[in-house]
Amino acid sequence: MAYFDQLLGGFFGSLKKRIEKQIEKYIENYVKKILTTVAWTSAGVVMLLAGMLYVLQGIIIYLGELMPMYLSWAIVGIIIIMTGIILLMHARSRFQN
Fold it and tell me: What is the greatest pairwise CA distance in the chain?
């Protein structure tokens, strides 16, 4: 009987090691995918923000030709603030549901 216990213990020990190795490999690949996604998303956000700054600067300069410069800055700033508030309200409502 001790022989079978030892044999089964060795089999299940080997099986346990294989399962642990596969789980570890799966988690490692999953974490790599997450980190890659975060890196590419961060790069995209930085480029998006840089582009938005140039577009907003162009709008401000254009409006500055039609009205005083301080007023064009104020108008663009208020529009950005309103857009940010709307996006935050939307995110908050999705988070609560």
Answer: 96
